[in-house]
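Marked as duplicate of an earlier ticket. Keeping the data here for the record.
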Amino acid sequence: MSNEIEAKETPIIEFKNVSKTYTLYKSSREQFSALFYHSKKLHKHKALNDVSFKIYKGESVGIVGNNGAGKSTLLKMITGVSFPDTGDIIVKGRVAALLELTAGFSNEMTGRENIYLKGYLLGLKDKEIKGNMEDRVVEFADLGEYIDQPVRTYSSGMKMRLGFAININIEPDILVVDEALSVGDASFKKKCKNKIKDLIKSGVTVLFVSHNKDNVEEVCTRAIYLKSGTVICDGKVEDVLKVYESKNKK
């Protein structure tokens, strides 16, 4: 937990007074018009509001909050998909994101070929993919002969298994997980959880978003509770979940 980390250590992730506002459009026509005409009537949504926190190497941090709390926006900023309007974000190391697990797949390429394609998109070289990583992905995904069949022949569950296997085996410094443990059957879910725990033990920093309290407690030692784009509570996972549950009792 962050308050137990020596001050001399440098955070691997740091948010400094980060804010992000989105414009919400009623229609595609209104969005197109906004390119040419400024309107004060457009609805603004503040996804993050002056958010600050530090996460250190090897921490496993749960991000909790109701829908619309700002969790996805926060993760998108860590992965470099979105950027703040104000404030600073520091992220150090290779990030593997278990968000859109099947993003970047080519349906006409085989599962094995897609391992290379996804690897290239993540910035890996041939020598980093060929051999150990490729073998680990194939073994973990456990797709049998389908690994050499076009991805268009896969079910959605098979695609997600392959996506999870690729992202979990690229040797990341930071692993971002957003409800990805809904992948596959009970046996595969357990396999995924065990792999995440092994990564945490090896020093990988994990950010875990889930609405499942038990999953958060099982994987994380610290949690950050977001509400309406603001950090309400940051501390030991059991303490934060108590606050989160108390705020959501009907």
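See parent ticket for discussion. The first strand starts at residue 13 and ends at 24.
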